[in-house]
Amino acid sequence: MFEPFFIFQLIVLVFSVVIHEVSHGYIADYLGDPTARLAGRLTLNPVSHVDIFGSIILPFILIISGQPVIGWAKPVPYNPYNLKDPQKGGGLIALAGPMSNILVAAIFGACIRFLQVASPFDAMQTEALMTMFIVAVSLNVTLAIFNLLPIPPIDGSKVLALILPRRAQLHIDAFWSRVWLMIEGRWMIFLLILFLALNPILDFIFFFLRPAIKFLTVFFTGISF
Prior knowledge:
9 helices, globular, 0% strand, mainly alpha, single chain
């Protein structure tokens, strides 16, 4: 029973991160930047998007260690100079990813509510489907909320541009540029620290994120946990 469920989690995660990245590209194209389209990234073919570490290895490690599952695909490229307003446009492109995961969660949530009311399957099949759909909702809600963290290169760092004054955003960008310059000079040390402290770091982050994840999962599924 574990193997099919495990495989289902990975499939949903890959599907969700692909949708996430394609959404970035479609909004960029809509706003006037065809970079992603010309690069062949506006496709649901996972081969074009999957990052070996972020889409497969890291989620595999998190699933078998019982941690909340996160991951990423290869970033969809865009050229901010093709946008009328690079700051606001970049914010909208970044926001498209998490919002696409919220939409996927809403769709799976609607399927759960349908199964509760008029399932065409027997009780055991219905329960199995609902369990898988709940996982799909939870994964997509988790991806959406995690990606809204205001830390580069996560989407939330660019979404801030939609609500902050331009000068404040410039100060934040300058701060993170200095941080990344420091990390680049010592990347092996930081990578080692990240791997050694991955579980405590995720525990700390999700201590704050879990209430929002639980609220949205219950909201979409109608099932209390």
